[in-house]
Design a protein that fits this description.
With 110 residues, the protein is an alpha+beta fold. The chain has one domain: Winged helix-like DNA-binding domain superfamily/Winged helix DNA-binding domain (Arc Repressor Mutant, subunit A), CATH 1.10.10. It contains 5 helices and 3 strands, in the order H-H-E-H-H-E-E-H. The chain has a 3-stranded antiparallel beta sheet with strand order 1-3-2. A hairpin with a 2-residue loop joins strand 2 and strand 3. The longest helix has 24 residues.
């Protein structure tokens, strides 16, 4: 039986933490409506009306999912008059969504 030295143990612990972080993010993305919203935001910010129209997501589902995305830090908001604009709130999430968009969405769009 081999002993794990402290450097290897720390490396394993760091990998476990990163795996947990990735797992948490993926579980937040694992919803068709949230994926649709984020996919729409890959091209840039949109207001609620635009997201609902382009994504075919009805109220109150749209509001619920935007709240979850905002709470989890996956989207950020900007207010302009009476409109609230949403955008992807993290460079890492943007990279993931751009990759997902490239794989799954390019052929589906007109």
């Amino acid at each position: 039986m081999t002993m794990i030295d402290s450097a290897d143990f720390l490396q394993v612990q760091e990998l476990k933490e990163v795996a947990q972080e990735a797992s948490t993010l993926l579980s937040r993305l694992a919803n068709p409506d949230r994926l649709m919203i984020l996919c729409l935001l890959v091209s840039g910010e949109k207001n609620v009306t635009e997201i609902g129209k382009e994504g075919g997501i009805q109220q109150p589902t749209l509001s619920q999912q935007l709240t979850v995305l905002r709470k989890d830090g996956l989207v950020s908001t900007r207010r302009d008059g009476k409109y609230v604009y949403y955008r992807i709130g993290s460079p890492d999430v943007l990279r993931i969504m751009q990759t997902m968009h490239d794989i799954f969405c390019k052929e589906a769009q007109p």
